[in-house]
Amino acid sequence: MFLHGNGRPVTPDWLTRRFADLVAELDLPPVWLHDLRHLAASIAGAAGVDLKVIQHAMGHSSPVTTAEAYRIVFQQTAQAAVRASAHLLLSHARIRMSLDAASQA
Length: 105
Known about the structure:
This protein is mostly helical. The protein is 73% helix and 0% strand. It has helices spanning 12-25, 33-46, 51-58, 63-69, 71-104. Helix 2 runs antiparallel to helix 3, helix 2 packs parallel to helix 5 and helix 3 (51-58) crosses helix 4 (63-69).
């Protein structure tokens, strides 16, 4: 909940209008206040935050809803995890092969 300087609650309509005014004033590309919600979930997903944590923060009824809404983010995160795992395995294999070669010399 947001409050005005005098302690009165900020209404959703006022907040939406104020956000739109700031976007225009700062000459930003068109963006809606609701887009920030998706941005926050996408950043959290890309950062590897657990799906259940994002589900809870978004207020989704199930993790399936969250996974479907942010599927591309989770696909990219999964692909990055596979690449990182492969890199780790390959680097260990190279070390192992160099140690084996050194022990035979």
